Amino acid sequence: MSIYQITHTRPDGTDADRRIDGFLINGQYYTIDQVIDWIMKGLHSFFVLVWGRRVEVIVKQHPRSGRWYLTTVGDGYPPNNLLNLPAC
To answer: What range does the domain containing 34 cover?
Structure first.
């Protein structure tokens, strides 16, 4: 398994229930569906840096819609550190 840092996000497109469409990882763009798939299959793990600390990116399932989404583990900072990353 490889571990990658997510540095940028691509903000929401036409999908009303998503706030992020994709990510910049090592200079390459990947869709949110690709990243979710890799995490769920145990192929790769991802993190963001918050005040110099690694914060793990995890997959959760929305309780009402059943849709899978990405968030970060609780670290005492805003609920989802992915939303604080710069846009690509």
So the answer is: 2-84
Closest to 69 measured CA to CA, from 86, 85, 84, 82: 82
Q: Decide: pTM greater than 0.70.
A: yes
Structure tokens at 25: 């990882």
Give the pLDDT means over successive 10-residue stretches in the chain (88 positions): 91 68 90 96 95 93 91 75 85
* 79: helix, strand or coil: coil
Distance, in Å, from the CA atom of 70 to the CA atom of 16, rounded to the nearest integer, reads 16
- Which amino acid, 87? A
Q: What gap in Å lies between CA 49 and CA 81, rounded to an integer?
A: 9
